């Protein structure tokens, strides 16, 4: 998953539910995530940039800490916005796997616009 300043909090929490407790432990300002109404309303609109500002945390630290926790919990490497994937998609098998991952992301609740952009990048290459 790509993570950057414009990543929506809701997108992260839908895909990685364990991040809620991680964020609450990280900063007392994030205790509001325990409130279902706050999570449902503000969580859908709040970007990581806004969350960092509310929490008084440096944005890069927040993003790196979240990426680290995702890797620790799932083994999945989060791609930080602006970073290039470590392995380019070069063959049809890799493209098929990337497309399958996009479909799985939709089922996990990842934002449709995010998945659509990734899909377009995949079909437009090679």
Characteristics:
mainly alpha; two-stranded parallel ribbon
Would you kindly provide a brief summary of this structure?
The two termini are 22 Å apart. This protein folds into 2 domains: 83 residues, SP0561-like (Orthogonal Bundle); 40 residues, no CATH class. It has 126 residues and is mostly helical.
Task: Report on the architecture of this protein.
The chain is mainly α. The chain has two domains: 83 residues, SP0561-like; 40 residues, no CATH class. Helices cover 63% and strands 3% of the residues. It is built from seven helices and two strands. It has a two-stranded parallel ribbon with strand order 1-2. The two termini are 22 Å apart.
Q: Which CATH class of the largest domain? A: Mainly Alpha
**CATH architecture descriptor text of the largest domain:** Orthogonal Bundle
**Which residue ranges are poorly predicted, with pLDDT under 50 across at least 5 consecutive positions?**
83-87
Structural class, by secondary structure, is mainly alpha
What fraction of residues sit in β-strands? Answer: under 5%
- Termini, distance in Å? 22 Å
Tertiary shape? elongated
> What helical percentage do the residues reach?
55-70%
Query: Strand count, sense and closure of the main sheet?
Result: 2 strands, parallel
User: What is the total tally of β strands?
Assistant: 2
Radius of gyration, taken over Cα atoms and rounded to an integer in Å: 15 Å
Summed over residues and divided by their number, the pLDDT gives a mean of: 81
Domain count? 2
Across the major sheet, the strand order is 1-2
CATH topology of the largest domain: SP0561-like
CATH homologous superfamily classification of the largest domain: SP0561-like
Total DSSP helices: 7
* H and E string: EHHHHHEHH
């Amino acid at each position: 998953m790509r993570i950057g300043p414009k990543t929506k909090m809701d997108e992260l929490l839908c895909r990685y539910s364990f991040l809620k407790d991680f964020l609450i432990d990280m900063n007392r300002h994030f205790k509001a995530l325990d409130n279902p109404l706050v999570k449902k309303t503000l969580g859908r609109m709040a970007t990581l940039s806004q969350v960092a500002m509310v929490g008084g945390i440096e944005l890069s630290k927040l993003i790196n800490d979240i990426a680290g926790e995702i890797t620790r919990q799932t083994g999945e490497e989060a791609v930080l916005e602006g970073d290039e994937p470590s392995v380019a998609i070069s063959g049809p098998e890799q493209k098929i796997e990337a497309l399958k991952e996009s479909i799985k992301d939709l089922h996990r609740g990842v934002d449709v616009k995010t998945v659509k952009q990734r899909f377009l990048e995949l079909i437009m290459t090679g």
